[in-house]
Design goal:
It contains eight helices and 16 strands. By secondary structure, the protein is α/β, with parallel strands linked by helices. The longest helix has 18 residues. The structure holds ribose-5-phosphate (R5P). The site of ribose-5-phosphate has 15 residues, from strand 13 and helix 6.
């Protein structure tokens, strides 16, 4: 029996491509709001015995989490054999510690919530910092898609003489992978965050950038302040305007506009979150990872 993909509205494009790669059935999921804001979810599919893939990138997780749970539980009630989650962006991974007394360690609480909702999880480059691996946090099968090969290919194709720049120490992990895959040099800056919208980064080594195109790479852009601070540094050093490559384009409020105005040449992101800057498609690697999880379910039910 073909697996059934149930996509949240924002993710319909990517979910459709992943379904085609998987040769899965793209089911119909209705999500509407009552006048008071409560959600009504409806699955218009026959799910008896099916393996269901709920497709929901978890930007805006506070809004989507409960509907996600409604869909997963309803899919089971309608007879699904298994229910997994493809969440290209996995929320709350940055809140992986109690930075001030009394704060919720949301990464942990959210992991417990998702584990209680679905049987497996596929995501793309989760923000791993103090937690070394997603398997250390989740007690269900998880698979992390690495976007580095797709990013590397795009940079090699689109940018002349690129040098990658990671804006902070945390970015070293994916910047090194992308630089390795694209066989190009890279630098990692030092960042100090003094508030949600106050960010300072150290200056890059200008000598290595003189005749190159700087490519700023970050896993998440939220307020845009990290990339803006880095771009401003490059401008002060008289270097060419950078290309910005982003894995998860959260872009809160007017962050995209502010970053464009900071003197960058181009901003491109993966389609892990739907956004006008999307230019790097991840359907194939996500489909491969989902197929891997579905194969495990199949093996687990073999006599
Ligand atoms: C943090 O460590 C992440 O890797 C990003 O650098 C950060 O989330 C970017 O946030 P913002 O766009 O608000 O500066």
């Amino acid at each position: 029996m073909k697996p059934v993909v149930l996509s949240f509205p924002d993710d319909a494009g990517l979910a459709g491509s992943v379904s085609r790669e998987l040769q899965a059935r793209l089911g119909s999921l209705e999500w509407r709001h009552f006048p008071d804001g409560e959600s009504l979810l409806r699955i218009e599919e026959t799910l008896a015995g099916a393996d269901v893939v709920v497709f929901a990138s978890l930007d805006g997780a506070d809004r989507k989490a409960l509907p996600l749970r409604f869909v997963a539980d309803t899919a089971r009630e309608l007879g699904a054999r298994s229910v997994g989650l493809a969440a290209p962006y996995l929320a709350y991974m940055r809140q992986d510690a109690r930075f001030r007394p009394g704060e919720a360690i949301a990464a942990r609480v959210f992991a417990r919530f998702l584990e209680q909702s679905v049987d497996w999880l596929v995501t793309v480059d989760p923000h791993l910092h103090r937690i070394a691996a997603l398997e250390d946090l989740y007690r269900i099968p998880v698979a992390c898609v690495e976007s580095a090969p797709e990013l590397a290919e795009w940079i090699r194709r689109e940018v002349r003489d690129p040098v990658l720049i990671g804006p902070d120490e945390e970015s070293a992990q994916w910047v090194a992978d992308i630089a390795g895959a694209a066989r190009i040099p890279y630098q990692v800056l030092h960042k100090q965050r003094r508030g949600d919208r106050q960010v300072e980064v150290s200056a890059p080594d200008p000598e290595r950038l003189r005749d190159a195109t700087p490519v700023l790479v970050d896993d998440i852009v939220s307020t845009g302040r990290t990339l803006i601070a880095a771009a401003e540094h490059l401008r002060r050093l008289g270097l060419p305007p950078p290309v910005c490559v982003v894995i998860h384009p959260l872009f809160s409020d007017n962050a995209h506009e502010l970053l464009k105005r900071a003197g960058v040449e181009r901003i491109v992101s993966t389609d892990s979150i739907r956004h006008p800057s999307n230019g790097i498609g991840l359907a194939r690697p996500i489909a491969r990872a989902v197929a891997g999880q579905l194969a495990k379910i199949e093996r687990g039910t073999e006599p």
